[in-house]
Amino acid sequence: MVFNPDDPRVRKTRRGLQEAFIRLILKKGYDAVSIQDIATEAEAARITFYRHYADKEELLTDCLNTLYEDLAQTTERVSKEALAQGISPLRVLYDHIEAHEPLYRILFSSRGTHTVLERLRHHLATHALKGIQDFVGASDLQIPPDIIAYHAASAQIGLAMWWLDHDKPYPIVYMAQVSVWLTLGGLLRALGIPEFPLPIPAQPSGG
Amino acid sequence: MVFNPDDPRVRKTRRGLQEAFIRLILKKGYDAVSIQDIATEAEAARITFYRHYADKEELLTDCLNTLYEDLAQTTERVSKEALAQGISPLRVLYDHIEAHEPLYRILFSSRGTHTVLERLRHHLATHALKGIQDFVGASDLQIPPDIIAYHAASAQIGLAMWWLDHDKPYPIVYMAQVSVWLTLGGLLRALGIPEFPLPIPAQPSGG
DNA sequence: TTACTTAAGATACAAAGTGTAACATAAATC
DNA sequence: GATTTATGTTACACTTTGTATCTTAAGTAA
User: Fold this and answer.
1) Contact of B97 with B160, CB cutoff 8 Å
2) Which nucleotides on strand D sit less than 7 A from a protein beta carbon?
3) Domain for residue B41, yes or no?
4) Residue of A124, A167, A178, A198 to mutate when probing chain B, most B C-beta within 10 A
5) pLDDT per position in chain B (207 positions), as tens?
6) Which of residues 161-190 of A touch B (CB under 8 A)?
7) Quick one: which of B142, B140, B206, B200 has its CA closest to B171?
8) List of residues 6+ apart from B17 with CB closer than 8 A
9) Is residue B201 part of a domain?
10) C-alpha–C-alpha distance, residues A84 and A82, integer Å
11) Angle at B33 between CA A117 and CA B105, to 5 degrees
12) Whether A31 contacts chain B with CB within 8 A
């Protein structure tokens, strides 16, 4: 069934289903949510769900895709504005997580359809690699760059997950700084310049 | 319903259900597997499933718990035998992944019930912290140790996931070495001793 | 405004899956 | 060999799924 995504009715319906689904997942968990539940919560007919999505998985993917695209756009925008002024992509990520906390909780809670989480990891890996290249040019690394990039990206995503899981025990700015800092430690060694000066982030004042 | 786990019939049934479930997940994906499917694959009556597990999730958790306990035991055993001879817990992990590849694929593929993956991360974080402490004693770190530990553990798990996802592009020994090496780079900086000598792993011969 | 197009709602239905019950059979334990 | 315990068989009520048909309502364009 083909829909016109610009039709206000279509947009309203899809938004309603997405938001209802997110609310229900956070309340009952993914598996416990039936399609009937989603339709009821969204105040729509059950068949309307099937007209837009094949199953729950597809709806979830749609939700998370929207989230990822929003993050990618924000990163892009901020990069142009103020990346040179020292705002790292990680700062953007942490801000984004806080702004869309419910969805990130779902994405991080092992229900996040491999694809989207993988794309996020790839996103961070790309930025990490780019950072390395801006830093050393075509200097030959002694460790394969794909390994470095995925090591860094995994650490950063994992730390963000941990941060959210533990109800944000440190402020955003500090997390972003430390994440960069710990990652760069490994990178600088991989680049053969462990002595490179890298100011340590200031300890946070409160929890 | 209470069962005697030592009864041969019980063990046979549970093992059969677990193995059948793993086969089916790898073939059709978690969501597509019904309890009837599991029972049929295991050549058991459907009601037998309900006598042992409340739902699919519980069965999966059982599978993954077994996996984790086996890893923890192996780590413990190897630690005593040969940790001093330079076999890192990461080497044990990579060996374990290779030996139980199907289950690890499930655990890593965002179906791994937060709990078990989280326990694995905690496991690695603990070892990382212990490594730091053995290294510097009670030296005061400038970065909170929980952050360091989870950063390291996330990087290591993430890299292992990446490695499996990309069909093991590098040999195990190399991955374990590089993983330790990249992680230690950050740690050594956190410890304030970036100049500490750390021999770079040798490049792998083939892919 | 009217006519046209398209999406959503109402109702119904077959098929599959879930969770439980009562009873019969087979395997383990003593 | 008798007893205990786990599994198998059959049956049932209930929920969920996915689809079909027809009606109503909302957007679009003359």
Assistant:
1) yes
2) 5-11, 15-21, 26-28
3) yes
4) A178
5) 779 999 999 999 999 999 999 999 999 999 999 999 999 999 999 999 999 999 999 999 999 999 999 999 998 888 776 655 556 778 999 999 999 999 999 998 877 677 888 899 999 998 888 877 776 665 667 788 889 899 999 999 999 999 999 999 999 999 998 998 888 877 777 777 777 776 777 766 544
6) 161-162, 165, 170, 178-179, 181-190
7) B206
8) B38, B39, B42, B44, B48, B49, B52, B53, B59
9) no
10) 5
11) 40
12) yes
Residue A91 maps to a domain:
yes
Chain B interface mutation, best of A56, A151, A183, highest count of B Cβ atoms under 10 Å: A151
Q: Looking at the structure, do residues B91 and B166 belong to the same domain, yes or no?
A: yes
Claim to verify: residue A132 and residue A32 sit in the same structural domain: no
Q: Which domain holds residue B101?
A: 58-190
Same domain for B94 and B179, yes or no, is yes
For strand C, the positions having any atom within 7 A of a protein Cβ are 6-12, 16-22, 27-29
Task: Name residues 34-53 of chain A with a Cβ under 7 Å from nucleic strand C.
Answer: 43-48, 51-52
Let me know whether A70 and A40 are in one domain: no
| pLDDT confidence of residue A34 | 97
Alpha-carbon torsion, ordered A175, A177, A178, A183, to 10 deg: 120
Tokens of A87: 């705002």
Does one domain contain both A14 and A35? Answer: yes
The amino acid occupying position B114 is H
Give the Cα separation of A54 and A74 in Å (integer).
30
A150, A170, A198: residue with CB nearest B162: A150
| CATH classification at residue B39 | 1.10.10.60
Same domain as B184, residue B87? yes
Q: Give B39 CA → D8 C1' in Å.
A: 12
- Domain membership of residue A201 (yes or no) is no
Count of alpha carbons within 13 angstroms of residue B163, beta-carbon side: 28
